[in-house]
C-alpha cells in the first residue's frame, strides 16, 4: 500500500471499516504520524455523532443488570507507553517507515505539520536559516506535482525522497539514520547519470528529519548518500550508503 | 398536535462532566459509574441497535460495552477525545465485531440484498428520541454526495468493511476509502466537531 493511500485510511479507520491486518498497519502508522492521529480523533468524534443520533431509552432492568455485573468485574490498569504500542511481526520494520511515510503522505496532501515540528526545533538554534529552509521545504513538500519514493538507507534506516519537477527541487526525509562515525558527516548527492553532484550535508545531530537538497534537480535521475569527512567533499570519497532513484 | 419532543431529547452531557466521572470510575467509584451509565446507556444502546437490529442481541452487546467502560475506564485518554466519543467508539467496535462474526457464516447474497433497502439511518431514526441531534445529523448527511453518504452510513450503521461497501456500490476500493474520509470531513465541518 502506498504511503498516500495509508493516509486516506483515516476515514475507514474511524468507521471501523478496515479488516484487522490493515487496521493494525494503520495503527502503527498512526503512532508516528501526529497529523494523522489528529484527523482520526476528529473523524472518530464525528462518527460518534452519528451514533448519538440513534439514542434510545434502555429498559429499566438493564441498569440493574449492568450495575450487578460490574461488582464482579475486575478493572484494568492504565495503559503504559509500552503496552500502548504493541507491535506485530512486521512492527519494527513498519515503524522505521512510518515517519517517512507520514511525511510523504503529508507532502501528498499538502500538509506540513509534522516536519514543521522538527524544523521548529532546529529554529531554536538557527532561526533564520531554518526558517528559510522550512519555507523552501514546505514549498517542495506541498507542490502539486510532488512525488515521493521510499527506500532503505544502510542496514536499518529508511528514507523518503520527495521531488517536485515544477520547482526543480527535492527534499530528503530520513528516519532512524545511525549517527555518522566521529568526525564524519553524511553528504547527499544528486546522481547525474553516474556523476555525483553535491546536494549538501545532513545535520549530524539529527537522525530523523527533513532536508532540502541544495541545488536544482536538473537531469538528476536519483540521489546518493555517502559518509564524508566533516565539512564534506567535492566528490564522493567512499561507496554510497544509499542510492535512491527519484520517482518518475 | 404540538411537538413537545424538542425538550424531551436528552441534552448533550457536558464533556467535562463525563470525563471527570470516567476518571472516578477508573478509581473504582461505583456511584460515579451509575451516573456514567445514565449519560451513555441511551446512546450506546441506540448505536448498537442501529447496527445489529435484533433487540435482544443489541441489549446483550450494549451491556458488554457498558461493562467494558467500567473495566477499561483507566485507559480512557481525554487528550484523544471526549468521554462520549470514547464510549461510542467502544460500542461501535463491539457492534461491528458482532456483525462481522455473524457475517462470516452468512451468504454473500444476503449482503447484496441489503442495498435494496432504505439506508439504515432513515429507518432507525424514526425510533429515536434525541430529535434535535438526529435532525442535525440528518441535515448534515444531506450535504454529502450520494457516494460519500452511502460509504459512511453503510460502514457506520451497517458495520460493513470497506471492501463490502465497494462491492455493494460497485466502485473501486480506493474510491470508497477516499469517500469515507472526505464524507466524514464534510460531516465534521457541517456538525462543527472538534477532536
Structure in words:
The complex is a heterodimer of chains A (248) and B (195). With 248 residues, chain A is of the alpha+beta class. Chain A folds into two domains: 82 residues, Anti-sigma factor, zinc-finger domain (Arc Repressor Mutant, subunit A), CATH 1.10.10; 133 residues, no CATH class. Helices cover 42% and strands 22% of the residues of chain A. Chain A is built from nine helices and eight strands. In chain A, the strands form two sheets. Chain A has a four-stranded antiparallel beta sheet. In chain A, helix 8 runs antiparallel to helix 9. The longest helix of chain A has 19 residues. Chain A is elongated and about 80 Å long. By secondary structure, chain B is mainly alpha-helical. Chain B has two domains: 94 residues, Rna Polymerase Sigma Factor, Chain: A; 89 residues, Arc Repressor Mutant, subunit A (Orthogonal Bundle), CATH 1.10.10. Chain B has eleven helices and no strands. The longest helix of chain B is centred in the first third of the chain and has 23 residues. Chain B starts with a helix and ends with a helix. The relative contact order of chain B is 0.11. The N terminus of chain B is likely disordered. Chain A: This is Regulator of SigK. Chain A: Pfam families: RskA_C, RskA_N. Chain A: GO terms for molecular function: sigma factor antagonist activity.
